[in-house]
Amino acid sequence: MFRFAFALCAMAFPMDLFAQTHGLSPYAGLESREIKSLSEVDLEDLRLGRGWGLALAAELNGVPGPAHLLELDLDAGQVAAIEDIFAAMQAEAQEAGGRFIAAEAAIEAAFRDGGMTPDALRALIDTSAAARAELRFIHLSRHLETPPLLTAEQIARYNDLRGYGAADPCDAVPEGHDAAMWRRHNGCDG
User: Fold this and answer.
1) Between 162 and 169, residue with greater pLDDT
2) Can you tell me the distance from the alpha carbon of 141 to that of 49, in angstroms, rounded to the nearest whole number?
3) 173: which DSSP letter?
4) d(C-alpha 82, C-alpha 117), whole Å
5) pLDDT tens-digit series, residues 18-77
6) Which DSSP symbol is given to 63?
7) CA–CA dist 36, 43 (Å, integer)
8) How confident is residue 173, by pLDDT bands cut at 50, 70 and 90?
């Protein structure tokens, strides 16, 4: 009887272990995406020329970009220059975002259609990486153009308004900001 109970437990243990370690993939549900590597929000952000977090190295180190500088008290010359920088950045980012989306779509299609080879994969990844690098350069380079237009006090005010340096940016959504977007960009909901 003891042997029978032991054998029954031994057979049941691996099944229980298998059930605990082989749950659903964290990717379950993503297979319905148009481009598996990009969410609908990603696609919208890229198509609209939004920052997509690509300029955080500048933004979070006190080098503001043009997107939110108009929240400051600026003179007419500063406003005109920043609007020009932003318009050029957005137009270039929309084009580069389109190239990145197309490159990711090409990778998607190649896997979907079958017959992918390592050489073809390398070429597709290199194209995607170059498009993403160009997109990042577009956003980061505009952060280099704006500081010369501003005073040190304006840059400090910008950083305060954005909540940089605050104890917890999740507790201080600056006035005039979309609270949901602020929370998303600052990792408040995760």
Assistant:
1) 162
2) 14
3) P
4) 46
5) 445 568 899 888 888 989 999 999 999 999 999 999 999 999 999 999 999 988 999 999
6) -
7) 11
8) confident
Residue 132: in which H helix or E strand, if any?
helix 118-145
Of 165, 183, 31, residue with least CA distance to 108: 31
Q: Are 104 and 46 in contact (CB under 8 A)?
A: no
Q: In degrees, to the nearest 5, what angle opens at C-alpha 77 toward C-alphas 74 and 81?
A: 95
Give dist(CA 69, CA 83) in Å, integer.
9
Which amino acid is it at 98?
G
81: which 2 tokens?
A: 């220059």
- Describe the crossing of helices 76-113 and 40-48 by its angle, rounded to 10 degrees: 130
- pLDDT above 70 for 132: yes
Give the type of residue at 30.
L
Instruction: Kindly provide the residue ranges of all beta strands, DSSP E only, lying in 3-150, ordered along the sequence.
Output: none
The position carrying tokens 């955080």 is 56
Query: Whole-angstrom Cα distance, residue 187 to residue 189?
Result: 6
SS3 62: coil
